[in-house]
Amino acid sequence: SHNIVHRDIKPANLLLMGGDQLKITDFGLARQPSAALAQNGMVIGTPFYMSPEQLAGKPVDGRTDLFSLGVLLYQMLTGVRPFPGESVSTIVYRILYEKPPAPKIVNEKLPAHFNTVLDRALAKEPSDRFQTGADFIQALERYRDAYLTPKMPEGDLGEATRPLPVIEPPGRGAGVPPPSPRRPSPPAPQPMLAGRPGKISFLGLSLVAAVLLFP
Question: Which residues are identified as catalytic?
Answer without folding.
Answer: 8
